[in-house]
Specification:
It contains 8 helices and 15 strands. With 303 residues, the chain is of the alpha/beta class. The chain has one domain: Ribonuclease Z/Hydroxyacylglutathione hydrolase-like (Metallo-beta-lactamase, Chain A, 4-Layer Sandwich). α3 packs parallel to α4. The protein binds zinc ion (2 copies).
């Protein structure tokens, strides 16, 4: 059985992340233990309330990572791993995106740095791309490397499925859609009951994310609803940087309603209110001004 799925840090919480804790009968897993903030949005630096939220969510990630058996890194962006806290990986079974195959230059450099930082710490370290691992009664399956978004410019990620007792949870990592065939193929093959997706990157709609990509992503998500027995679809991360996100995926809401599938954000999944701090950055400065925040500022503002 999959006992618990706990979103730890997501854009709907007010930070950039898809960090998720998953617990089965015999395994505790954290997917992508990292969190960051947009260095600039609307030309503005992160508001102190965002720094505060990042510290809070990092604490939640750390707490779960410390008790976990398995840590997974789907790719080497800083909102998905944190090379400054190698101690987190001590004694864990660690599954990482392949550091030299199907990777762009920037992520290749970061992968090398990260793997050097954690060297000797994990109990076991595996390159995950396209592989499946049986750990007790839990199966963890990784997609082959799929594009980060709609093309390979930003590199590649692995999607992750966790299966136990006939139940399946799937985390897509940064697919920004999914708009590509192999990104959606993995979901259709794994047939998740609960699916966490990095939804379409519509805050860049018309310049860095095309209307065509949005249309195809909507079609693909509808296809997932029709061809699997999905119960809950969580759309978050890049998608929750757009204040108009709900207007972008009308066909998905319609198809989900017909089938009784919930389409929600990670915040709603765990009963929190949606707090799109990055997308509301202008409003935060208007309402609260500069404020002072003297916390530790863990995490990063690097992309
Ligand atoms: Zn990324
Ligand atoms: Zn990301």
């Amino acid at each position: 059985m999959i006992r618990k799925i706990v979103p730890l840090a997501f854009d709907s919480f007010g930070v950039r992340s898809m960090a998720t804790y998953v617990e089965t009968d015999d395994l505790r897993i954290v997917i992508d233990p990292g969190v960051s903030l947009a260095p600039l949005r609307y030309g503005l630096e992160p508001h102190p309330l965002e720094w505060k939220r990042m510290d809070e969510t990092w604490e939640a990630i750390k707490e779960r990572a410390e008790e976990a058996d398995v840590l997974i890194v789907t790719h080497y962006h800083y909102d998905h791993h944190d090379p400054d806290h190698p101690e987190l990986y001590k004694g864990k079974s660690v599954f990482v995106k392949h550091p030299t195959e199907n990777i762009n230059k920037s992520q290749r450099g970061r992968a090398e740095y990260f793997l050097e930082a954690i060297r000797g710490m994990p109990k076991k370290l595996e390159f995950s791309d396209g592989k499946s691992f049986q750990l007790g009664k839990t199966t963890i399956t990784f997609s082959k490397a799929v594009c980060h978004g709609t093309n390979p410019r930003l590199g590649y990620v692995t999607e992750v499925s966790v299966k136990s007792g006939g139940e399946c949870f799937l985390h897509t990592s940064d697919v920004e859609g999914p708009s590509l065939d192999d990104q959606v193929r993995f979901i259709l093959d794994e047939k998740p009951d609960v699916l966490f997706v990095d939804g379409p990157m519509t805050y860049m709609l018309g310049f860095r994310y095309s209307y065509k990509s949005l249309e195809i992503s909507n079609e693909n998500l509808v296809r997932v609803l029709k061809e699997t027995n999905l119960q809950t679809l969580v759309l978050d991360h890049h998608f929750l940087r757009d204040l108009k996100y709900k207007q972008r995926i009308k066909p998905v809401y319609e198809a989900a309603e017909k089938r009784g599938v919930k389409v929600i954000t990670a915040a709603e999944f765990c009963g929190r209110k949606v707090e799109m701090l990055e997308a509301l950055r202008k409003e935060l400065y208007a309402k609260y001004g500069e404020m002072k925040y003297e916390g530790e500022k863990k995490g990063t503002v690097k992309e």
